[in-house]
Task: inverse folding
């Protein structure tokens, strides 16, 4: 009698989102640490970008004395604009690298803690892609939260610090559009960092044989 192969049933994305959300809620402390790592890295980048955006908006309207104060504060101008110097770029890259390494380490620990959960999914017929999707969705959640928080923190600190140095007059030339762009790019950066940090742990979790996963004690 010929074997009839039934159509494979794939869980919808709504189920993946729900499982990922519940997983974050159960492991809230570990997820919070990972998110705070993103917040610190992204806030530094956002702070740098927003600082230069404010200075570029303020500079054409600043008096000579204020321009002298800006330059004496250590900010460098080139071709009439402020921008990142090699030192800023190096510090930013270093902070982002440390962030990704921290996320990879946290996600690998999460895989170790979830041996039985992963094994149960796979014994119930979950494909490797399903396991990967769970980790990716969790990373998206953390990336979005970390990006939003980090962007806002960086913009707020840069605005307040420049106001303390050069006076409240900077609010008259506060570049709303440039800040919106900084916010968007910072959030995107956080999501990308979170996804980069989860790729290897997610693949390792998906490749885990169900029998080995279930044999491990939590």
Result:
């Amino acid at each position: 009698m010929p074997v009839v192969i039934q159509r494979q049933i794939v869980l919808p994305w709504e189920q993946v989102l729900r499982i990922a959300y519940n997983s974050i809620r159960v492991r809230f402390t570990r997820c919070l640490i990972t998110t705070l790592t993103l917040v610190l890295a992204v806030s530094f980048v956002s702070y740098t970008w927003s600082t230069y955006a404010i200075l570029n908006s303020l500079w054409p309207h600043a008096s000579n004395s204020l321009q002298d104060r800006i330059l004496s504060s250590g900010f460098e101008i080139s071709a009439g604009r402020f921008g990142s110097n090699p030192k800023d770029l190096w510090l930013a890259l270093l902070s982002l690298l440390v962030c990704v390494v921290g996320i990879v380490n946290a996600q690998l620990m999460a895989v170790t803690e979830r041996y039985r959960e992963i094994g149960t999914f796979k014994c119930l017929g979950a494909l490797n892609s399903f396991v990967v999707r769970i980790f990716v969705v969790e990373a998206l959640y953390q990336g979005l939260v970390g990006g939003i928080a980090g962007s806002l923190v960086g913009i707020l600190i840069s605005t307040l610090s420049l106001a303390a140095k050069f006076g409240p007059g900077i609010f008259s030339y506060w570049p709303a559009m440039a800040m919106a762009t900084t916010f968007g790019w910072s959030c995107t950066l956080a999501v990308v960092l979170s996804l980069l940090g989860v790729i290897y742990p997610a693949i390792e979790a998906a490749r885990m044989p169900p029998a080995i996963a279930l044999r491990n004690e939590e």
Remarks:
- The beta strands are 77-78, 81-82.
- The helical segments are 13-26, 28-58, 64-72, 86-113, 115-123, 128-166, 176-206, 210-215.
